[in-house]
Write a structure and sequence with these properties.
65% helix, two-stranded antiparallel sheet, Heat Shock Protein 90, alpha+beta, 3 domains
């Protein structure tokens, strides 16, 4: 039964009860000599008893309808509020829109919603901390395993390749017939060993990337390039300016440099590598240029995880990356990132 129906029934019942109570009290105090007078006495051509009953019922009916609409409106406000709480939304009730009792009830609902919201925040925080902790442990395990593999490869395969390279160099240098087919084949084997060494160094760079670990981007870049210049038969030059950057930007630029250098070692067959990190106006520019064999940028971009990863890293820090590569004329990679000043910095 709806609120209007209940209030309507309540109004009619109350009006009938009031009518019969008043009639009994009145005729008990002033008894009639003849009860037929109730039907014979007319007002507006309507018997008194019928008119009195009709007026009472009408008043009760109107009171029930009005009261029912008022209660339905207030209950609807409470129902909407509970629905918002069910959906996790916050809602407020205008002052004076509800009775004192319903206002107290809605205040309790509001308090319950606040408690539920706080519990939700706590649950989400605990879930996030749990996931972050799991990811951290996984990363630590992966990092340890990569370092172990890198050490084993460096101590075994890399050393054997170096020894084989030195042996092949000694053999080819002592050959008398320079243009003989055997000498050419030995030269090819030596080149293959040298290329395998480059591949191994690139693989080690992937397995055990140099982390900044408290160093600035400039310090990390110089350390990486100095180490490569000592181990790789390649002319490596660099110009690195000192720029204050956020740690996230530094990490992404450093990883892009590592990926680019790794690709150069593995695929470019380059003899020189030039690295540039400068600030020009409001842009940070990282440029890596080699004189290798080049490649088709569009084809490689679609199928290379490394290139796609570099593009995504550039986008994550609000920058853009462009690669220009021509066959037998080398490759030029350039990353431009907007320079955002920190809170304590200002224009000079």
């Amino acid at each position: 039964m709806s609120a209007i129906q209940r209030q309507l029934l309540w109004g009619i019942s109350l009006s009938l009860l009031q009518f019969f109570t008043l009639m009994i009290l009145f005729f008990t105090t002033f008894p009639l000599s003849d009860w037929r007078l109730l039907w014979e006495l007319e007002i507006f051509d309507v018997p008194f008893i019928v008119l009195s009953l009709s007026v009472s019922l009408t008043i009760g009916l109107l009171a029930g309808v009005v009261n029912g609409f008022v209660w339905r409106k207030q209950l609807r406000v409470v129902s909407n509020m509970l629905h918002d709480v069910e959906l996790g939304k916050s809602s407020s009730v205008p002052d004076g829109a509800l009775t004192h009792e319903l206002t107290a009830m809605t205040n309790r609902v509001t308090n319950i919603h606040k408690q539920m919201t706080e519990q939700t925040k706590i649950s989400q925080k605990m879930a996030n901390e749990k996931v972050e902790d799991q990811e951290k442990r996984i990363q630590e395990i992966v990092s340890q395993e990569r370092n172990r593999l890198a050490r084993e490869l460096h101590d075994s395969v890399s050393q054997q390749l170096f020894a084989a390279s030195m042996l092949m160099s000694a053999i080819t240098e002592t050959r008398e017939e320079i243009n003989s087919s055997e000498t050419k084949q030995l030269k090819m084997v030596e080149e293959m060993i040298n290329q395998s060494q480059l591949e191994m160094r690139a693989l080690l760079l992937h397995l055990r990337p140099i982390a900044l670990k408290g160093k600035s981007l400039q310090e990390g870049m110089k350390e990486l390039l100095i180490e490569l210049s000592q181990k790789v038969p390649m002319d490596i030059t660099w110009k690195v300016e000192h720029i204050l950057l956020d740690k996230g930007v530094e990490d992404h630029l450093f990883r892009i440099l590592q990926e680019s250098v790794s690709n150069t070692l593995r695929h470019a067959k380059a003899t020189s590598l030039d690295v540039l990190l400068v600030q020009r106006d409001d842009l940070i520019i990282l440029r890596v240029v080699d004189d290798g064999k080049g490649f088709d940028v569009e084809t490689e971009k679609a199928g290379s995880y490394g290139l796609q990863n570099m593009y995504e890293r550039a986008l994550e820090i609000g920058g853009m990356m462009k690669i220009v590569s021509l066959k037998d004329k080398g490759t030029r990679l350039e990353v431009k990132v907007p320079f955002v000043k920190g809170e304590g910095e200002s224009d000079d």
